[in-house]
Amino acid sequence: MAPSACGGEAVSWFTSRGYAVALPLRRGYGASDGPYAESSTCPGAAFEQAGLESARDILSAIDYARTLPDVRGSEPVIVVGQSAGGWGSLALASRNPAGVVAVVNMAGGRGGWAQNAPNTNCRPDLLADAAGAYGRTARIPVLSIYTANDSFFAPAIARNIQQNYLAAGGVMEVHNLPAFGSDGHNLFFARGGSLVWGPEVERFLAPFALAQAAPRRT
């Protein structure tokens, strides 16, 4: 694995609106250091713990980004995660870290394509339970986006994640979108994807007034 290119569509959407963007790889992914710490295999399906390990790495990346010369350490932070990164962003919201004002979960989850079959999950009940565990302590506003043809997290699975998170007390705005391309799981980084998710993200972030007048770089 490798980070998205700085000129990629998803990244450019944010930088063109004045955001500084960090693109971290978590432990065990690509060329990043450290052992992989997010194992959540069945039958135990430790989805909650796997997400919290992801959140640890996201927080470390935020702390580092705040030291960079082009970033003011006091600037508010939004976290955008896709797939397992989206699941980690929900876990991060449960920790309510200082300075993080909003989270965007793009097709977040764990355990998709169980036994190499689309639209399946090895333990969807435990995935929903873990979402509820995050929601019990999370107070950061979350935007949650899934599509109708997500091969990892089918609509029923996505709804259970969202409903459990909300029922437990989490703050979440839900947008379940129509089918996108051949697999909506790829919406965030896909060509033309920002035309679909961009308006929803822009409306969600507007109250936080985070964007600056001048474009920023990654």
From TrEMBL:
<dbReference type="InterPro" id="IPR029058">
    <property type="entry name" value="AB_hydrolase_fold"/>
</dbReference>
<protein>
    <recommendedName>
        <fullName>AB hydrolase-1 domain-containing protein</fullName>
    </recommendedName>
</protein>
<feature type="domain" description="AB hydrolase-1">
    <location>
        <begin position="15"/>
        <end position="158"/>
    </location>
</feature>
<dbReference type="Pfam" id="PF12697">
    <property type="entry name" value="Abhydrolase_6"/>
</dbReference>
<dbReference type="InterPro" id="IPR000073">
    <property type="entry name" value="AB_hydrolase_1"/>
</dbReference>
